[in-house]
Amino acid sequence: MPLTLSRPDLQRTAHFIAGEWQNLGPTFDVTDPATGAVIAQVPDGDSQAARAAVDAAHAAFPAWRKTPAKQRAQILKRWNDLVLAHQEDLGRLISREQGKPLAEGRGEVSYAASYIEWFAEEATRANGEVIPAPVPGRRMFALKEPVGVVAAITPWNFPAAMIARKIAPALAAGCTVVCKPAEDTPLTSLALVALAQEAGVPPGVLNIVTASRERTPEVVDAWLDDARVRKITFTGSTPVGKHLARRSADTLKKLSLELGGNAPFIVFEDADLEAAVEGLMAAKFRNGGQTCVCPNRVFVHAAVHDRFAALLVARVAALQVGPASDPASQIGPMINARAVEKIERHVQDAVARGAVVLTGGTRLPALGANYFAPTVLAGADATMACALEETFGPVAPLTRFSDEAEVIAQANDTPFGLAAYFYSRDVRRIWRLADALEAGIVGINEGALAAEAAPFGGVKDSGYGREGSVHGLDDYLHTKYVCQGQLD
Question: Is the pTM of this model over 0.85?
Fold first, then answer.
């Protein structure tokens, strides 16, 4: 099935600045990870394009912040309707440039739209407070105001959901936006911006600049140096997040950083093993393991380890690997050669240190250069690269444990703290673990965590700030205290 679009004009290949599509300067290739074929060429942005985007956003901010919240909400609702109306085209675009199976591409569009709808509704709820005055004749208020121009830097693994999760609350709050999508997957972001334009987002309120991996620092540094940019929102690696935090200090920008993870997945001896396997399949192998919250370390109690491993291997070995153009595909290609090389290195390191491959463990060159077989390892331990680094691929390393306190210590023995999962039917243990695990998100007998109504974010080296939920809107607002006296 060819992944063609019923609306070819949704495949945009230009910057969007001040309400105009602009082809400026050199270009770079966007490729299909399934075949390596070039899909499109988009502009390779530079500091000039980045500053032009800020100029437009800064000029548009005064009018947008004064636009009534209900009117902003109506624009966002129209955007949501357009996204859902073009779900099939957007899903195909995601699958072409990112590689995930088409069913997952369609699902991501629905997930992205849920954030647009949520923040359309939240736009009218940015309520302030009336504070009881300590003396007569005074009125005291806490007002919520938009922070200003927001720079959004989005990742490649969910090119629709991540841009929606950042742009929707910014626009709802009354902020204007400049955005730099991931170089691997700019086409989905550009299509969403085109639909936002159709929905009535005014010129300059939303701007997007594309750039290659090599030119991205030039674009982002221009925004970091610009005092008119008042907030950075970033999803990506911890080293880059720390760089953004350091560079934002000079202009004291507000930051939301959703960074790396090293999620533990714990299966206790009293767990429903079939449910635990299904939960791990959903959490680990969605998007080929290329998610920030996917389990990276799987701890299984010794009493149920072998049974759990057998159930898991049966499910993993049955996964259909192939391109998104094949409706039977359940796992697509990895995003690029660097990703496959890292996965292979992790598996080889684990085997060299004593792990055993129960299924998978190899590339799949007959399918293409970027395919890796879904893999289960037994005998993993804390010395292996797969326990110390985020694999970001379809590899589930199993580690035996026998003591609750021991596994809690192992789960927390990482600088990261984004997500954690565990399966148990002991209600007392459930609350002990929920309290003890050092993570911003905890799944209890559940492998699918994300929802637009829930706060998404981490602790420790996994960042700070929250996306989604009422807290997601607050990250684009600041509080102004107003005190009026002599009222008596």
Answer: yes
